[in-house]
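Q: Sequence in, structure out?
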Amino acid sequence: MPSDVVRFGNGLELDRRAYELRRSGRPLKLERIPMELLLLLVERKGQLVTREEIIEKVWGKDLFFDTDNSINAAIRKIRQVLKDDPEKPLFVQTVTGKGYRFVAPTVEVQPRPEGDSRTLTRDLASAGMAIDAKAPAPKGFGKAWKVIALAAVGVLALAVVGFVFFYSHSATKLTEKDTIVLADFTNTTGDSVFDGTLREGMVVQLEQSPFLGLISEERIQQVLRMMGRPADARLTPEIAREVCERTGSTVALEGSIATLGSQYVLGLRAKNCRTGDILDEEQARAARKEDVLNALSQVASKFRARAGESLATVEKHDTPLAEATTPSLEALKAYSAAWRIQSPAGSAAVVPLFKHAIEIDPQFALAYAALGRMYDDIGESDLSAESTSKAYELRERVSDREKFFISASYDLQVTGNMEKAQQTCELWAQTYPRDAMPHAFLSGVVYPITANYDKAIEESSKVIALDPGFVVGYWNLAYSYEYLNRLAEAENTLQRASERQLEIPDFLIQRYDIAFLKGDTVAMRQAANLGQGKFGAEDLISDHEALVLAYFGQLQQARRMSRRAEELAQQAGHPEEAAVFEAGAALREGFFGNAQAARQHASTAIELSKDREVAYGAAFALVLAGDARRSEKLATDLQRRFPEDTSVRFSYLPALRARLALHHREPATAVELLQASVPYELGAPNSSMHGFFGALYPAYVRGEAYLAAHKGAEAAAEFQKILDHRGIVISDPIGALARLQLGRAYALSGDTAKEKSAYQDFFTLWKDADSDIPILKQAKEEYAQLR
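A: Exactly. Output:
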């Protein structure tokens, strides 16, 4: 068996156990990747280590980043530290085109007795047993000798244990930059209800701490895939320690539960990831199964205090687990199982598990909150609002951190009040500076809706910095760049996610949209093909294909693709998503002048769902189709149901009321009504996130109002806004029609050259359009009069 220390060269030592390179006893600075590579080369001294082996051993399999340059950089750093000349190597020899070989002679140094505290404790215990069982008593002393001897050993043992306790607990102190990997609990009770459940409970308890930083489930699963293991692999102590090393974490936590007679004994052991040294051990007992969660809370609180967190914050943020989650182990088991598979399986797949947890415990606030989040992910906003509202009612039954989550979710998914959501998220981030979630909410919802895209980029970057394995960070960042037409940076963000093996169906949609904005039909087709048959992507891709076909005036094909998207959504059990697709189809027909088709699609959408985005899309389509009465009714209902909603107040209602004013031939009133939308009119309202329609509608309607008022220059400025913000509008019908409307605006202002150019741009875009589309026929008649 190799020793811990290898000597080579002139005074160089490589200490495997301490994970340290020394020269003449002094540590040399070597980063983690070069250190792992050096350890590999020394272990295989004299043998060729191929570049493929290096990639697999140091980084893991199936990577997509530039490993060649990464290997070269690591070798270069090793040579710099060792002062090794690559032309005349003494240590690391390059085998051109193959790999590397460690060529220096090495000497394995057998470790001297270290006086390891655990070994001393074991030795003392053994000595005590030996004296008690075997040592002969001096004549005349009898039993008194054994008592004295055992007392002496006991005093010495206590002294050593006291030293061990002091040393280990002082060494446990973590910093605000250290991170922790939590392993699965070792369960020897024979009761499967504890499997997965105790780990999730410990996660909830430790996440109450503003000080500690746990590696997220998403990042753990990402690393497991890099290690060639299933994303849902059991996190044994050995695997947890490897994950810990690969993520650059400090501590691996190992939990256990066992029975002792009729009692349950819970243990928690903290180990240094690199050395395996035990830094802390905690233990608690539970007299009954029902008391296990309380015992788990005690263990967690003790660890937090000894890990360096202030007693003040431990006491302030220390809700017992049974109160923070549920007193039911069975409900907690279903809840933990859902989170375990959510990332690889998707949001829709875990809805039944969260629902089962609620069936077991109808007062389980966190399960309602999680269910609301999952429904929102899959576009079921009414169901999301229902579950989130229930969580909000029960929010006093959770920890402080989860209370922030529920309150923010309530404003994001129920009231729609982005101003309040922003305040909650900012206080959340201030209270829990290591939590990525408030930054995710700010970057993914709040700032896009309020048109603050630079702040969205800033917050998305914070998400990735706090948790590089949190896929939402890349998703939000890519969208933020896309909104600003910074397409290369958006693509680069998605590539960074791919390099970390982070993939979600929504990335296919983003790639498709980016390819559309670039005019890259090959990349569009590739993304569409990848979405075929993929749960959670196929219906969305089909809807986006319908949007693009309509954008180019190919309405017949768009209708077929739209029907396919709706059917797929219905088959998947997502009626609200199908309703959103119907609302989008109604808008296309309305904008293009097909009044009857617009009314039919709007009616179908409303029958399927009363979702706010569905209601908005249907109401706008109805007023385009001339049905002002039903449109007004839906607008009034939106105002009544969502009085606080930022999208409703600053986008939906101003656009609807203004379009209704135009229907009644009141352009000045329309312009006045649209003043309310000015603060956020360049934002991405909820409808554009859930249904991919509605962005910049206030600007489009204002342009129409100026046309009706014969103000050509003002109208042209509004339609130009739409063409200048393609990353926000994407393939919404107004992106195509703005070209035609621009031509009409130039006609009013008397600029014939620009008028003709704008019309020609529109006709070029619609060169393959269906000839029977009413607005196209009208445009051709207008253009014919210019000649």
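The chain has four domains: 5-109, 117-171, 180-324, 515-784.
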